[in-house]
Amino acid sequence: MGVTSIAKANTDQGAEDSLNELIALARMIAYARQVADDVKLQFATNCLDLALEAVKQEVGEGFTRELAELSSPVPQVSVSCH
């Protein structure tokens, strides 16, 4: 295995780790959102909806099915930096 192959493998592993962390974060936000909704904290629920949608956008379209259960009523918005 050459240096280029090792660098590519490390990059792929790092990207996969980042993706797994984002998916875990989305699940934590979804749980917090559900708890906030259960105790009728409307402002917190709305903020967590926005956070969840931002993380889902960061994860990308490829994992829409994996995150389908983490849906919120917020429409897709652009949160990219300009």
Structure, briefly:
With 82 residues, this protein is mostly helical. 66% of the residues lie in helices and 0% in strands.
Structure overview:
With 82 residues, the protein is mostly helical. Helices cover 66% and strands 0% of the residues. The chain is built from 2 helices and no strands. Helix 1 packs antiparallel against helix 2. The longest helix has 36 residues, at 3-38. The chain starts with a helix and ends in a 23-residue tail after the last helix. Mean pLDDT is 76; it is low at 3-7.
Number of helices: 2
Which structural class should the secondary elements be placed in?
mainly alpha
Oligomeric organization of the protein chains: single chain
Can you give the mean pLDDT?
76
**Topology as H/E string?**
HH
Indicate the radius of gyration in whole angstroms.
Answer: 16 Å
Number of strands: 0
Percent helix range = 55-70%
Distance between the termini: 39 Å
The largest β sheet comes out as:
none
Low-confidence stretches: 3-7
What is the molecular shape? elongated
The percent range for strand residues is under 5%
